[in-house]
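Notes on consecutive records. When two proteins share a document, each keeps its own sequence and its own token line. Never mix them. Below: protein one.
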Amino acid sequence: MTEARPMRAAPAALWERDREVTAIEEAVDRLCADRSSSGGLLVFCGEAGLGKTALLAETRRIAELRGCTVWSARGGETLRSVPFNVVRQLLQPALVTLLPEEAREYLGDWYDIAGPALGIADPGGRRADPQGVCDGLVAAVRRLAGRDWPLVLLIDDAHWADEETLRWLAALAERLREIPVLVVVARRPGEISGDGARHLDTVAAAAGRPVSTLSALTPDATAGITRATVGAHADAPFCREVWAVTGGNPYETVELLAKVQDSELTPTEVSAGELRALNRSARGRGLVARLEGLGVDATRFAWAAAILGDAISVRLVAQLTTMDRDTAARCAALLRTARILTVPDPADPRADDGELEFVHPLIATAVYNSIPEGLRTAMHGIAAQVVTDSGLGAAAASRHLLQVHPDDDAELVDQLREAAREHLAVGAPDAARRCLERALEEPPRPEVHARVLYELGCATLLTAPATTIGHLQTALAMPGLDGDARVDAVFRLSQALLHNDQLEQAVRTVEAEAARHDAGPARLRLQAVQYMWEGVYAGEAATPGRSERLARLAGTCTGRDNSERALLILRAFDAMTHGENAVEVVELADQALVNGRLAPGLGWTDTEWGVELLMMLGSAYAYADRLDRAESLFAEALRAYTSAGWSGGHLALAHAFLGLAYRRQGRLKDAEEVLRESLRLAERVGRGLPLYWSATCGLVDTLLARGHVDEAWSIADRYGFAPPYPSTIVLPDIRSVRGRLLLAVGRTEDGVNELEAAEKAAAARGGHNPVLAPWTVDLARALAGDDPARAARLAVDARRQAERFGTDTAIGEAVRCAAALETGQRKVRLAQQAVAYLEASPCLYEHAAARVEYGIAARSAAELNRGLALARSCGADGLAEQALTARRTLETGSPLT
């Protein structure tokens, strides 16, 4: 084995680390090569004491020699409950030096979103979207990397980083190809599970190379370090015993050799037997005994430092221990001499005058665990008070409050509730959940107990719907939740049930609560919510007569408040899905607006009603041929969510429905672009949700319209676009699109079966809109050869339904279908009629298809040219190729088919 011997002055932990140091040098060189260089990522993994921190220090040294800006941060075992702790350490120092207007200029639109999480801006009035905050933090790095290039970020003890930081780190790691920054991460194996472990796995995968797993030093390297430290006269048996005692752990080797020097032990075989006793004094109980030997005051100081965890200063420790300043300063000096505490590296921008830190996390852990449990709890309580008195807020104090034993303390419950509100405002719902769960243990006073459960349910609504259900059901069964708060709790409960795939129970819950109320705004809101959830259900068998009841109730509404407006929207959507007169659909939808705009309280980011209601409104416009209004609504959603930093499921849905509007208009390229973005966002939220199906279905439908059949099939296969389908409605109609896809790839029998399943689903809902669920026309075309009689009946039914609905698109598509089943002059006449209807329609793709079909039927080069121009303008490549082929065939005099 070759001994890797760096310079004698190099830290012990860098011995036998040539491979890692070379990787660091290469990564820094790549970063510095050009401002347009992509970023880099290195991950060092190893047990405690194997030299991860030393490698980060070496990275700093190498990077600074090359003129890099270096920022660093470290996770802490007792600080994992502090949201954004590590990312704040990393980025905040660079931002707090700027004036607020400068920081806003650098972060741009992300300032109000990421600023509160970084502690440089006050949070807004509503809870922040965690995914939006995460994206904002990634954007902050992008902006800062441009200002401070070449930029290197060092993260030590990442296994102890808070959940919010790990989420950001995983997102950043996946975007480093486009951000010129080098990120170097050090972590222990294991130590973490759940989402945190998954985020670290994402980071490791993004590194693009195997994680560098550090191993212990060899006997030769240990001997080299021993002789470099205590003298070249250290003999071989002594050096071998140093290795045997420490297991080749670099940190333990350094600490042991420091004890050898302190004790003036002769480094020979004769004294080698004393090494084990010396080593025990540097760890575990030995360390605790050594600490106690420094005296009661020094021990109390060390305990207080361990409670604080970070930002350890003589002033804060003096407050926590009630020592006078001189005594505290003397204790700090003793602990530094004993190599328990130290002053942070002055090169570290986080180091302020007077701050201290533990020499090694192993020491911090041993000291913290040595505090008697009762005393430790009491010290956390005092620390919480110190933090609160310092004006840092309830959220900053909450990590200490979480450690206090329950004691029926109403004030502590109030503090934890306030901390939860602060956490939600910066996009940390998991931290809010921990605070509220701890508040329940206190327990709260009877008059506020239900409120705490309600707040907890709201905090966990999107992250843990099953847990939310339990909290809200318990809250609703207790006294103390009345009026609007109770109605809102029932609505949140129904949302959680919906997200937990318990749609029928969601409907029954709202229905039962509505029955408890007399006529008035509360009851009307609950009735509207009931109809909303019934409206998104993919079947109607469980709620017979729903449409009639909804029509009667909406008939009494004039739009004077948001409950009435909601009912008008629901009635418009229901009428549209059932293919009732489109003019009436639009009139109902218009009644729900105020001067053509969404009413206050019904905006996209308002939470009283939920996003589903407005998606129904936009869909009613989209399928009633008012695509201008649909596009305006969905574009407004996109702007609102982007501005508010909501980049999770809400933004995914906004892209999906804007894609739907573009697809209906015939802007197929634009539709494909926004639908791919919707699918990307939906992937981050999680597969299987309705929004995921909407994105996938819309993209497959658009690709089929473009003629990109292979790509459509690939997307369907990759994203599981196949039964079983969700229990909620998906737009466009999921079975119709799947059936059309199967027909396009030549699986005719499967395609017919899928379209017949769409027929049954439509029948279960009491009729259908032939544009919303176009299974009729697709099935008629598919059956034309084998069962022309049935195909003809379907075409007639499609025409009847289309004329009932009354839009140019619906009638034009029905006539196109009828033309496809005919021959000769009747085919030509019907094709010409289809063109006339679809020319008046706002749906460009369908107009283009009708032109091409008419051109083929009438053997008209002029019509084919018009169809070709339209197909090209809307991005329908397959249709354009069909028109070109038909024109060439016509030019040769061959018969057109």
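Protein two starts on the next line and is unrelated to protein one.
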Amino acid sequence: MRFVDVPVRDGSVLRGIHYPAADPGPVVLVMTPYGADRYHPAGLFFSGRGFHFVSLDSRGRGDSDGVFRPFHDDGADGHDAVAWLAGQPWSSGDVVTYGGSYSGFAQWAVAGTRPPALRAVAPVASVHPGVDFPMVGSVPASYAVQWLAFNRGRRMNTGPWSDDRYWRDTHRDLGDRPFRDLDVASVGERLPAFQEWLDHPTYDAYWASFVPSEPVGVPVLAITGQYDDDQLGALTYEERHPATHLVMGPWDHAGTRSAARSFGGLTFAEDSAIDLPALHADWYDWVLARGPRPAFLADRVAYFHIGEGWRHAPALPQGASRPLRLPETTLTLDPALVGDEPDGFREELGEDAFVHIAPAHDVSGRPSAALTLTSDLPDFDLLVGLYLLRDDATLLGEAVFRAGHRDLTRPVELTFPFISRTTEPGDRFAIRIRAPHRRYETNKAARGEVRLGPGSYLTLPASDPGP
């Protein structure tokens, strides 16, 4: 292990840790706001596989110079880091990238600048600014303040960040104060990034400026999960820049790095847990012509069909559509009745929302919905959840939107996360429509009725038999 200083174009220095290989060779680069040292196990692993592994603190974080401005500087800083690393005497001149969540976004940002020495990127659970964070469906996420507090200054504010009760209570106690005051209520000061984000409530040129506008021109290994909070972001990148290989596990956000089989009250089969660091190393070796194509990546896409196992295909499946008509109903919204975000993925549906139940079937693809809505309210938000009913209600996926940014003279169209699973006799689907819980901003204008009209439906993609 060696400490490393990497200069960038404005004279600033990014600092981190270099895990050297025994001989000159390719470099694996990760850029993170969460502390370069957190990648210590990965550094030891990749150096043992013949890669030089370099973990750098993002600008303004840890030991790196500057001020951390989320999303703004990662592309240019990463471009310069790639060039510097490629020029070191211990480097072969080939650089690939690694990391998940914000580091997944950073990989896309760097790739968009097309550094000449960049050979491949492997973004995992990638945040897509303006799509899945810090808002979803134009509904701001309260977690944005929690995350900014985590990344304020140079230290890791792990204690406050991990106290979920504190953040829930602060949001609940905001009362009649505007959502813009959540930063002051939580940490006693304005957080410039939070205020800046709220000034861009829809996906516009501001958000688009952080991500590639053209194909990145290098191989991409993209990894996400059916319960990954950033699946929406990862699949948005996939739609705009199709990956060389895409892996869709049954995992949650953290599991996209660990392949954990159990989380949030759910447990999956043993074969769902694959060796993700080894898959990365094998794939890097393949794209660098140092080894064969990984056997696991037999086709462009590998996805886990829950209840069966891994399937391989040229693309994520989108099974034949089975429309499910939703009955007309009237929803009564009251911001005073908004609840906390559920703890985990298994929950009681309760009686605080519209719930429609229908027979279940095997599903593989991204469900969608078209909702015909009318209301006298000036604005309102809705959260639509899809559940599997067996012993209890297991969340399969949900979609949220703000009506103020939609044309309600036309059906509101929604797309859900990718789902692939078998069902059992007696299983049922449940569709729940309600005001969003406190994971999102509470829309204080939404006090009154919203009518779900005729012609509303959910489309569920049926699963084709596996190979």
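For the record: The mean pLDDT is 95.
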